[in-house]
Amino acid sequence: MNLIPGNVSLAQWRDIYNGAPVSLAPSAIPVIERAAEAVARIVAAGEPVYGINTGFGKLASVRIAEADLETLQRNLVLSHAAGVGEPMPISVARLMMALKMGSLSQGASGVRPQTVLMLEQMLAKNLIPVVPAQGSVGASGDLAPLAHMTAAMIGHGEVFFSGQRLSASEGLARAGLAPLVLGPKEGLALLNGTQFSTSYALAGLFEAEALFRAALITGALSTDAAKGSDAPFDARIHALRRHKGQAEVADALRGLMAGSAIRASHAIGDARVQDPYCLRCQPQVMGAVLDLLRQAAATLETEANGVTDNPLIFTEPAEALSGGNFHAEPVAFAADMIAMAVCEIGSLAERRLAMLVDPALSGLPAFLAPKPGLNSGFMIPQVTAAALVSENKGRAFPASVDSIPTSANQEDHVSMAAHGARRLMAMTDNLRGIIAIELLAAVQGCDFHLMASSDILESARGVLREKVPALDDDRYFAPDIEATIALLKHAALPVQNLPGVA
Fold first, then answer.
1. In 410-471, which residue ranges form alpha helices assigned H by DSSP?
2. Where is this cross-link: 5-imidazolinone (Ala-Gly) (predicted)?
3. How many CA atoms lie less than 13 Å away from 232 in the CB half-sphere?
4. In Å, how far from its chain's centre is CA 502?
């Protein structure tokens, strides 16, 4: 993929997250060169400029001699590489590197072309820094994680290469790359920015979008399994409320159930007046989720295309301006919105699952077991789903309302975007488990009706039944759930025409 700095679509960032190759548009090189030349003029002028010939943070008043500027940048990187915890997933780290490449290439960071191209070469060779995932508070940039990324570029720390975890110096040598020597401002430009937080938030968004679509299918299957009505999905209802997402979800659910023989079998003469909210209010809940995810997506697309380091370099005249673009409050808010959306998708899915296993509500055999009593059926899978829902509720508390002063109170308000975004991967993993269990239960419920659902829902049933047979007598259940989770990870369900964030 050809990355055009400042003009990368959400779909392109998604492709990079999914492993697509990425290269820098050649048109960016002259822009980068002009900013590097501006830094050279600032250095030659000899006036103190933060981050170029001064110390950092609380040490900004300390003047650094020109002969020590290279050492200044190296020391900055090594001292700030102070993260802890498990490494970033490679897919997220690749996205972070591409985001940083896009930011540095807009001619406001003052780095040289070879510095940006080092990121491009590392991505091309799948040489990915080992970046501990804990240590950023989401202001002054994601300093510690980005320092680990930068340390690998200069030959320190560790990298993943050819399936191995190696020292950075060995990894660079095997990839045929020489360690980068940082010029004035370059270490700070690489460390300052929101790319760690933004990469995790985008990854959470992409996973949430995929699971949102899967949950539309499981919701429609659960409605069919319970012989629920599709009348609440009538377009006239949703036109009156005017929420775009709600109307789109209702339309999607109608389309998913269109032509279902199960639905047709009870469309006339059904004694039930209204279904439980978990069926009837799917457009209202999932539509609100869709609108929220789209709002978060718009914020993150803007952030991903922005420049977030400090100070920023302006070329005519050559000037460095200190500001606060590194503050990740927009990312923190977006991550909090995604967390709420993920929580609600799972909460509604679990209620549908609970309805299906309750014969008083679903009209199906207790716990979806052909011989209940002798068999427990889906009794404990529903408990597992409830546990995952509860765990996500705890994780969904807004990260953005917290702040803790750092750097001797120079950085006295921080966004907490980093861990607000990082938790999304665990939350979407939990959600995938919930949706997997609902899919198993919904298909099991439809099996009792001995008739076909709609074409698209039958396709989803077929995908599952290729991997997991119907449950007759109790068996070791965990492999069924794991196999279904794997189907969701590989996007095996027919979700292509369902609404999404972009």
1. 417-447, 455-467
2. 139-141
3. 19
4. 14
User: Given pLDDT bands bounded at 50, 70 and 90, which one contains residue 264?
Assistant: confident
Cis amide leading into 87 (omega within 30): no
pTM: 0.96
Where along the chain do its domains lie? Answer: 2-193, 201-310+322-489
Rounded Cα distance between 223 and 392, Å, is 24
* Active-site residue, from 17, 50, 200, 476: 50
What DSSP assignment string belongs to 45-57? H----TTTSB--G
Quick one: fold of 2-193?
Fumarase C; Chain B, domain 1 (1.10.275)
Q: Where are the beta strands (DSSP E) in 272-418?
A: 312-314, 319-321
Q: Is the pLDDT of residue 13 over 80?
A: yes
Please tell me the predicted confidence (pLDDT) of residue 84: 98
Per the annotation, the verdict on 50 as an active-site residue is: yes
Structure tokens at 482: 């794991």
- CATH 3.60.15.10 assigned to domain 201-310+322-489? The reply is no
CA distance 76 to 59: 12
What pLDDT does 287 receive?
A: 98
How far apart (Å, rounded) are the C-alpha atoms in residues 149 and 196? 10
